Amino acid sequence: QVQVVESGGGLVQAGGSLRLSCAASGSIRSISTMGWYRQAPGEQRELVAITRDGNPNYADSVKGRFTISREYTKNTVYLQMNSLKPEDTAVYFCKAYVFAIGQSGLYAYWGQGTQVTVSS
Questions:
Q1: What dihedral angle (degrees, nearest 10) is formed by the CA atoms of 56, 3, 32, 71?
Q2: Helix, strand, or coil here: 73?
């Protein structure tokens, strides 16, 4: 069993900052890639940031404002969000690509999401 849990969401004013955390736990051999996605009401889920082997990639809408990083020994990924805008309001989901103990393949696991609300 593998679990992915996000934390750190909340309500902030435009221009403020939040730091999201995501920890994967369970029968994990290794994690190749971890990323952050978000979904606003009535909209499709979109990729925000993703990192593999120390190489981060960002959606154009968050470049220069968000930073993704990993703490490999704890199977944790962070998303530092600065200069937040109202359009950043969404539920943010963590996704981990996991090689699990007892499994031969790579599988993706999603967290339950954490709400980020940016007021104008």
A1: 60
A2: helix
Question: Which phi-psi region, left, alpha or beta, contains residue 75 (left: φ > 0; alpha: ψ -120 to 50)?
Answer: left
Predicted confidence (pLDDT) at residue 1 exceeds the cutoff of 90: no
Q: Order of strands, edge to edge, in the sheet holding 66-71?
A: 2-7, 18-26, 76-81, 66-71
CA distances from 46 to 38, 59, 64, 120 (A): 6, 9, 18, 22
pLDDT in tens, 51-96: 998 899 999 999 999 999 999 899 999 999 999 999 999 999 999 9
Contact residues for 11 (Cβ-Cβ < 8 A; gap 6+): 117, 118, 119
